Amino acid sequence: MHEMQRVYKLWSYTAAQPDFSFLPHDLGIAKQHFPSFIMETSWELTLDELRAKVRWWFRATRGSVRVVLLVCVEPGPRGCIIIEKWSAARADSTLKELFIPTRKRLIRITPATPDYDSNGDPVATRSKLARVTGGPLEIKFDDVMLRERSLHLREPTRFVFRDQFFQKYATEVWTHAERRYSRQSTVT
Q1: Residues ≥6 apart with Cβ < 8 Å to 12
Q2: For the segment 80-106, what is each residue's pLDDT rounded down to a tens digit?
Q3: DSSP secondary structure string for all residues of 14-66
Q4: Distance between first and last Cα of the chain
Q5: Mind listing the pLDDT tens digit for each residue in 51-88?
Q6: Which of 41, 175, 170 is nearest to 110 (CA)?
Q7: Which of 68, 76, 80 is nearest to 133 (CA)?
Q8: Contacts of 31 (CB under 8 A, 6+ apart)
């Protein structure tokens, strides 16, 4: 995989830099000017502001970007994490927009309420640290790699992210957020 951290200039007056992007190596930059996969994340932007970026990527790249993944973390040390997978559906050619962004998956990760032991004390188990709804998240191989998979290489048909992945991810995000918010409270 090839991660690209660069600014994509589309016209003289517009440019964007995603938080993460992927462009397969074997295509070469001459064949594909834009990544196949984009991830936009934010602690500060609202979900609506992130969704505006989705529309921009599909419109500006004329469908070259195949999948946009949004990750929005609500404010607070254990804020809700919302993950949305978007792809572009080809529109009727009579419409002004050729590629209509379509949300394919919505995953919501919230802090789990703890179980209680016989003494009434909270018991947090690793699997109960986060409640995940809307999973799993699947991304097709050909949407990322821009080619069919090779059977002789035993490549997957899709990349699958299950609830356990998101529980671990949420724990890492919330640990970082708690540190971030504790630093902010000591500064103010």
Answers
A1: none
A2: 999 999 998 876 665 566 778 999 999
A3: EEE--SEEE--GGGHHHH-SS-SEEEEEESSS-HHHHHHHHHHHHHHTTT---
A4: 42
A5: 999 999 988 888 889 999 999 999 887 889 999 999 98
A6: 170
A7: 80
A8: none
